[in-house]
Amino acid sequence: MTTAKNTICLWYDKDAEAAANFYAATFPDSAVTAVHRAPGDFPGGMAGDVLTVQFTVCGIPCIGLNGGPIFPHSEAFSFQIATDTQDETDRYWNAIVGNGGAESACGWCKDKWGLNWQITPRVLTEAMAAGGEVAQRAFAAMMTMHKIDHAEIEAAVSGA
Questions:
Q1: CATH topology of domain 1-71
Q2: How far apart, in Å, are the Cα atoms of 24 and each of 33, 60, 123, 146?
Q3: Which residues have a Cβ under 8 Å from the Cβ of 35 and sit 6 or more positions away?
């Protein structure tokens, strides 16, 4: 297997394998492709512990590194998942939040490992790209939401 030229490395305390398995089970075009164990003791772990996990999230290559608690995830990095229907938005949002995660504002949520996700309906991104009053109305509607409601964004776009 050839490693991608550019791979996202995500730092976990100790649960990279569990996180990767969750992402692979939740998102399409996602899989755990390799698990590598430490050849020797390291800060926060011992020889034989899972050190890195190679996986993909929606086709994006990632490596999960079990590096200990020193570098927690922050909102400075997030995966943005585009959705086409309310059912799809609900499915991803509920999987993340319902599996020990937390809601945030404007389509953002955090999984139980602290990684941030934006579950973003295309109807919202298209409205924002339209600019002008359409974008203003969609933006105002979004600012009142946690999980994005497609129908409310569509109503805002139409001026209803």
A1: 2,3-Dihydroxybiphenyl 1,2-Dioxygenase; domain 1 (3.10.180)
A2: 10, 11, 25, 24
A3: 17, 50, 52, 53, 54
Token couple for 117: 């996700």
3-state secondary structure of 136: helix
**pLDDT, mean over the chain:** 96
Answer whether residue 57 shows pLDDT above 90. yes
Domain boundaries, the chain: 1-71, 73-160
pTM for the whole structure? 0.93
**Residue 4: DSSP 8-state:** P
Q: Fill in the amino acid letter for 51.
A: L
- Tens of pLDDT, residues 126-159: 999 999 999 999 999 999 999 999 999 999 999 9
DSSP letter (8 states) at residue 8 = E
Instruction: Please report, for the chain, how many H helices and E strands are present, in that order.
Output: 5, 8
The dotted CATH code for 73-160 is: 3.10.180.10
Cα 18 from Cα 99, distance rounded (Å): 12
